[in-house]
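#help-structures

NK: newbie question. if I give both the sequence and a SMILES, will the prediction place the ligand too? trying with 2-acetamido-2-deoxy-beta-D-glucopyranose
OV: yes, paste both and it writes out the complex. here, I ran yours:
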Amino acid sequence: MVLFRSLAAASLASIALGSPLQLQARQNASSPCAQVSASVATQTSAATPTVPAKLAYDCITSVPFNKSAALALLDGVAPYFRWQSNTVWLKDPPEEYAEKVQPPVDIWGGLEDIRAKAEGDEFDNEFAFGFELYTLLQSTHDGHFVFIPDSVGTVFNWARPVPLVSVSEDGKELPKPFVYADVLAESFGNSSFAPSAIAKINGVDALEFLEDFAQKGSLQDRDALYNNVFYELAVVSLGPTGSGVGTFAGSGRGRWQYPGPTTELEFENGTSVTYNNYATVLIPFDGITDGESLYQKWFTGPQPTETTAETPSNSSTPTPSATPSATSIPAPGYPPPVYREEHNLIGGYYLEDDYSDIAVLSVPSFVSLESAEIPFQQAAGKKKLVIDVSANGGGTILQGYDLYKQLFPQGIGHAAADRFRAFESTDLIGQYFSATSEKLPRVYFEDPSINETLYELEYDVVSSVFNYQTDTDVNGENFPNWPAKFGPQEQKGDNFTNLFRWNLSDVLTPWNSGGIYIHGYGNLTNYTQPFAAEDIVVVTDGYCASTCTIFSELMRQRAGVKYISLGGRSKEGITQAIGGVKGTNNFPWDYIQALAQFTITNLTSSTEEAAQLNTTELGQYWDSVVFDRMAANTAINVNFRDGIRDGDESQTPLQFVYEPADCRILYTKEMTVDVTAIWKAVADSAWGGESHCVAGDLGGYGKRRVKREMSVEERVLSRRMHQWRRDLSAQDYPLDVYTDLRGANLDMNGIMWP
Ligand SMILES: *[C@@H]1O[C@H](CO)[C@@H](O)[C@H](O)[C@H]1NC(C)=O
Ligand SMILES: *[C@@H]1O[C@H](CO)[C@@H](O)[C@H](O)[C@H]1NC(C)=O
Ligand SMILES: *[C@@H]1O[C@H](CO)[C@@H](O)[C@H](O)[C@H]1NC(C)=O
Ligand SMILES: *[C@@H]1O[C@H](CO)[C@@H](O)[C@H](O)[C@H]1NC(C)=O
Ligand SMILES: *[C@@H]1O[C@H](CO)[C@@H](O)[C@H](O)[C@H]1NC(C)=O
Ligand SMILES: *[C@@H]1O[C@H](CO)[C@@H](O)[C@H](O)[C@H]1NC(C)=O
Ligand SMILES: *[C@@H]1O[C@H](CO)[C@@H](O)[C@H](O)[C@H]1NC(C)=O
Ligand SMILES: *[C@@H]1O[C@H](CO)[C@@H](O)[C@H](O)[C@H]1NC(C)=O
Ligand SMILES: *[C@@H]1O[C@H](CO)[C@@H](O)[C@H](O)[C@H]1NC(C)=O
Ligand SMILES: *[C@@H]1O[C@H](CO)[C@@H](O)[C@H](O)[C@H]1NC(C)=O
Ligand SMILES: *[C@@H]1O[C@H](CO)[C@@H](O)[C@H](O)[C@H]1NC(C)=O
Ligand SMILES: *[C@@H]1O[C@H](CO)[C@@H](O)[C@H](O)[C@H]1NC(C)=O
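OV: that's the protein plus ligand as structure tokens.
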């Protein structure tokens, strides 16, 4: 079977596949873990049992630290860290990045520090060690650079039972945090109820508390991180592929941060409310009597397979069924769609009444769009297009290219140029992949059974980035050989390959694109541009990462489309629209391991040659410790490729380039219950009479919208929209949406998992 790429999906796919818990009551309740076990045993009907946050913390921190195992894990991660493209830039970032975005991080130095502490037995428990390793990677704010140790992510996820929103009273005043349930109550319930903003959290100024907590997230931009703390409709619409109800309430990266036993909110009206924080229990606890037995069963080797899946439900209380039905529900706060991909991964909408000349393309993900030939033809008669990429953690790189090429079929066909670290492992793999490919034709075929051997070689080797024939150089020419692609070029004391680009005319494109050819190439050349650039505007909440940033580079740099950023910290001024990792390709660690092993075992011509290759750096990828010690149902990645903008003499990876949006719009309460309020504010600011920009502006951009007669269809749609809005109630806002991804294509190379 096809060896590579699909590996990335395995861990996430298993999220959907839970098995019922087999629980037995535990007698010994004297240790915290025994108490967890006893509590779980009584929750037989819950899909995901919960325990008080403090109890979970006491249990996980009672797991003893094992020095020799810790040192083995630290040795195990090192070969994979080498693949991270930007360690020298993280250590020494541009001044503007350090000032406005994030401080420097020394990955290799940090790893040494952890090793020294482990050597000195300075960790009180296994969790303290695991969490320090987790935090080293998290502190890079590179959403592609992730390793979640078992002690951090296998057993518990923490949460606060109170999702918040950050909203401006009138769209002009700086935003304040509110309890989301209060905003729902005001919107749909008691009209005389006016919620009070949160003034303090656990005794600390609320804004300060929330900005600090935001820093625990995976994004780099601080305003995007701030938005990610809160409940947001676009994020919720993604169900388990999104970061749920916000990090404050334990979604996304919030799930790995112990929030303390309670959360006290003090409101501006003087009232205080204390909430009990909790942890969801992700594994069966039968047989676990204490931290030691938890260690023996879960942290020593390959993990038991019967992990309880985290099965996000569409209700605020866990549903009793461990195997949820395979249907997906529409997203809360989204209107009736014109077109909606069944997992909410993409949707088309029209607005009503005065806005009926506007089409909206909601693209919260680039995962599995292969079915999504966007029906732009249908949008005939619509004059303007709002593209909402809020919550978009990426997906398949070439799906981002294709959406751009559907909009601009004649547009320039490359975003930034790519490069990766040039070192022994990448050189050797490139030499072997290139040599093998030179002996094979470059042919695409859909049916593997025609010739299994050839199919696998074509899919795994010939179409790979390690075959120099796959990409073009920066002049659009083919590389003559592997050394021409490999370089290396020296920068900041590290080595990188020469710059290269995707060859979108390549016959093997479907194997890199999730099954499609790109519009504008091959036999897909006869397309007309559906909208003028000035009739398109893109809006984002800053949570635009990976493939979404490649799409955005194309839209902004190539097509000149304007970008609007939403929300952000309670501070004046412009914010960035693109706040997630701008690396142009992630590599799962198991893919790296497979590349190395495959090169040794399958691409050598004799056992002697294999044995010789096994003595090089490529022989350092046999150990399974990182896979044994990663948290169940998590994805581990490095950022493999950097994007370098055309003409950037300094060759700064885009990750470190600060890029203000063209306009910033603040969230209002209405925007947290009705997504069309966002789209209307965007349309007004771009083409209407009224700018909602609190910073930046789109002045002189496009023409003013003119009132026009609605067609019969538009009147019907408008009535449907009014009806939808009238029928909304607080019950339409479950705290999580279950989107079943079984059957979806999770074969992705440009994604940041939440
Ligand atoms: C600690 O880890 C080592 C493996 O490095 C293992 O052999 C040993 O049994 C572990 N110790 C305990 C007490 O579990
Ligand atoms: C509506 O809210 C006001 C103010 O919070 C409260 O006094 C009143 O009892 C509420 N009415 C209902 C029907 O809940
Ligand atoms: C103060 O505001 C909070 C949050 O909106 C609300 O729950 C509480 O009932 C209010 N207290 C009073 C006394 O109105
Ligand atoms: C109960 O747990 C404690 C603390 O972990 C342990 O020392 C004791 O041996 C356990 N007793 C039984 C009967 O399992
Ligand atoms: C959750 O979604 C399922 C499937 O669409 C539906 O049957 C169920 O009623 C929903 N539950 C809630 C509480 O909304
Ligand atoms: C399959 O492809 C390989 C590699 O090109 C070739 O050597 C072999 O003869 C092919 N097998 C068949 C049955 O065509
Ligand atoms: C970079 O490559 C040059 C030439 O191959 C080599 O001499 C040097 O040691 C490399 N530097 C690093 C940091 O790997
Ligand atoms: C791109 O791919 C096509 C088909 O695989 C190939 O013919 C062409 O030489 C490649 N390079 C360029 C620069 O188009
Ligand atoms: C383009 O070519 C591919 C592969 O040859 C074929 O499957 C597809 O149907 C063609 N598409 C069009 C629009 O002709
Ligand atoms: C290309 O598109 C034009 C306009 O849509 C159409 O008239 C023409 O027949 C198309 N040509 C081909 C070769 O498909
Ligand atoms: C690699 O080689 C082994 C045996 O030599 C074979 O079983 C396996 O299928 C090969 N893998 C691929 C992806 O071709
Ligand atoms: C390579 O070396 C490792 C030990 O470092 C060994 O486990 C593995 O079997 C060797 N593989 C080959 C193909 O020689």
